[in-house]
Amino acid sequence: MKKLNNDIINLQKGLHPDHLSFWYQKIILDTKEMAPPWLQDKIKVNQDELLPMKFNLDVSKRAVRYFMISIDNNLQKMPYTTQMYFLKVQDIMTLEMNKALV
Q1: 13 pLDDT more than 80
Q2: Distance CA 5, CA 71 (A)
Q3: How far apart are CA 94 and CA 96, in angstroms?
């Protein structure tokens, strides 16, 4: 029973707003390092003050590819629930990019 409780606590930590904020900042920093200098100021994330689980991504269409690569590069370092969260972010970004092409 104690192991199950610890597993649940660890899963909850992976989706804590501070934890997600840390990973967003890490991914944004990595993305900016990969992107050309003229794109670096077009890569931002803001955490909503009223809804701490809400993050507003402001990434140029030209920088999305670097953002996706950065997520892929960091996935293995994240807890499982955080991995699932960022895989969903990638999925949503892919859908949005596909809409823009149509």
Answers
A1: no
A2: 29
A3: 5
Q: What range does the domain containing 91 cover?
A: 2-101
Query: Looking at per-residue confidence, does 102 or 40 come out higher?
Result: 40
Contact predicate 56/46, CB 8 Å: yes
DSSP state of 47: E
Structural element, H or E, at residue 39: none
| Residue 26 and residue 74 in contact, taking contact as beta carbons nearer than 8 Å | yes
Count of domains forming the chain = 1
The mean per-residue pLDDT over the stretch 60-79 comes to: 94
Confidence at residue 21, expressed as pLDDT on a 0 to 100 scale: 92
